[in-house]
Structures are given as C-alpha cells and as structure tokens.
Amino acid sequence: KLTGLALQPVITPELVQGRVHLKCSYSPRSPEPPVQYRVLWSRLSSPGKREQVHHETTPQSFSYVEMDGVNLRLGDTVFCTVTAFRRGTPEQQSLPEDSKGFYAGIKFLPESLEIAEDGKEHVLTVLSTVPIACPGQDDSCKITLQLSTEDLGKGSRVPGPPDIALSACQVDLLPEPCSGSSCAAATVTVTAVTDFAQDGSRGSRIRAQPAAPRDSLWRAYTPRDVKVTVRDLPTGNCYSFTDPHIITFDGWRYDNYKIGTFLLCRSESRAFEVHVRQWDCGGHRSTTACNCGVAAQ
C-alpha cells in the first residue's frame, strides 16, 4: 500500500550551470516494486490561491525547476506537491504531500521593528534565500541593494522627515554556501531619530532596491518593505527664567541671583551640556541677576 508513505517534500535552492534552480527533495522508503513520483510545482498567485507552473513524472527522489524570471520570479512563494504511484498500476497512489512554501528573494530579519527614541542601534539582517549567480566573467558575483527610508505619516498628517536613520545607504550581498534559508547576508543598523517632539508612535519603512543588477532575474524585483514603528520616550524639561528662577528636571525650584557663567545641566550618558550667563540687572537697590546668554553642546 502507498497510503502511508510520508514523503516529506522540502524545497532547497541550488545553482545549476550558473542559473538559479529550486530542488524538491522527498525521502521515500524503498518500496518494491519500483515507485514513480508525480511532482507538481506551483506558486502563490494571490492569498490562498496557487498557480501551476510545472509538473513532471520521475523515478528520481528529487525534481528541479528553474527560476527563469517568467514562470517563477523573485518574490514568489513556491510549493512542490508529490504523489507516489507504482509504475504498472498508476491507480494505486499515495496521498499528495505538500512542501512548505519557499519564499524566493530578499528577506529582512526581523520582518518588522518597534524601537524607541533612545539612541540604541538595532541590527537588521538582509538575506537572499536564493544563490547569487555570476553572469559575467569578472568577479561581479554580488547584488548591491540601495536602501532608503520613508516616513509613513500619521493619520492625515503629511509625511515629514524620516523617524529612523540607517548605518549604510547600500549593502552588498556576496555569494556564500546556502545554509538554512540564507544564501547571502549582510547587516545594517537602524536607530530612531531623537527629535524631542511628543508626536506619538510613528511609522516608517525601509526600502531595498537592487542597484543595476546584471542578472536579469533581479531586474524586475523589488523586495518587500520593512515597517519600523518608532515609539516616543517622555522628554524631560528644566527651566531657568527671568531673574533666574530655576526648576529642575525633577521639579525642584530655587533662585540663583549670582552674576557669572554657570553650568545649568550636563548629561552623564552622552556629550550634552548647557551653560547660562547671568548679568546684573537689579540696579543699586537690589541684587538681582538676569539670564543674558545660553550655550548648548
């Protein structure tokens, strides 16, 4: 009986004669008499719907299909479905078994980020799930991705400057042996721009665009965006006003009637400090100083 065969098809990427192929492997037990396999390749055409792109019958425990940029393109999620049957009796067949969907193209890990305006750097990994081919004779084995950011705005607000900064404007994906879901990888760091504005949580996105690829497979491909949500952190306030009344960050109040240049505040965690200059403004009858200058680093 062929009903309990547990074929467990798995899709892996491979370079065959310099061209990107997907390989569907299945691990049958060795039944007698010889068994053949019907392999159906399909791609996700819309949510929940698949479109058949190739099928074949083979005695081998694997099947190849080429990422040709026409039937299978970068950005496709691909499946292979395998059915086993005996050569002389095709009506005796196993139940069809599906592979997991294989996404062919660029992936970002993590797929989305939620970060705060705290100056921390967050590592974003950019990886290709398919091998990088070398179309020319020179050492042009790489795909360069141009990175950009865009503010998504909030409600009806017009999008403004991006809320995030990247450590690089482009990354190079260099070929390496495929391992897991990665055939080439690079990293970039993302930091939230500290704008001192109480503007709530705002959305931005990171875009990646292959820059002038020689390989035709990459020319019409735009990877999915990464959404980044930037969360406000409360901003502290301190004051020095009129004949200087001072209110500290934690709400303590006092007066400073002295004349001179003073350190108003200094951060212990970053290069930031504020100096104030106070001059005599009380005349002969009272000793009073007023703010007349400020310097901030």
Kindly describe this structure:
Strand 3 (about 35-45) and strand 4 form a beta hairpin. The radius of gyration is 31 Å and the shape is elongated. Helix content is about 0%, strand content about 50%. It is built from 1 helix and 23 strands. The model has no long low-confidence stretch (mean pLDDT about 85). By secondary structure, it is mainly β. The chain has 3 domains: about 10-105, Immunoglobulins (Immunoglobulin-like); about 105-230, Immunoglobulins (Immunoglobulin-like, Sandwich), CATH 2.60.40; about 240-295, no CATH class.
Number of helices: 1
Q: Any idea what the CATH architecture of the largest domain is?
A: Sandwich
Looking at this structure, what is the CATH superfamily of the largest domain? Immunoglobulins
Helix content: under 10%
- The CATH class of the largest domain is Mainly Beta
Beta-strand portion reads over 45%
Major sheet, described briefly? 5 strands, antiparallel
Mean pLDDT: 87
Number of strands: 23
- Gyration radius (Cα, Å) is 31 Å
Task: Explain the layout of strands and helices.
Elements: E1 10-16, E2 19-25, E3 35-46, E4 49-58, E5 62-66, E6 77-86, E7 97-98, E8 102-103, E9 106-109, E10 112-116, E11 122-128, E12 143-153, E13 164-166, E14 170-173, E15 184-192, E16 202-210, H1 216-219, E17 226-231, E18 239-241, E19 245-247, E20 253-255, E21 260-266, E22 273-280, E23 289-296
Parallel strand pairs: 10-17
Antiparallel strand pairs: 1-2, 2-5, 3-4, 3-6, 6-7, 6-8, 9-11, 11-15, 12-14, 12-16, 13-15, 16-17, 18-19, 19-20, 21-22, 22-23
Keywords: Disulfide bond, Signal
GO molecular function, one term: signaling receptor binding
Protein name: VWDE protein
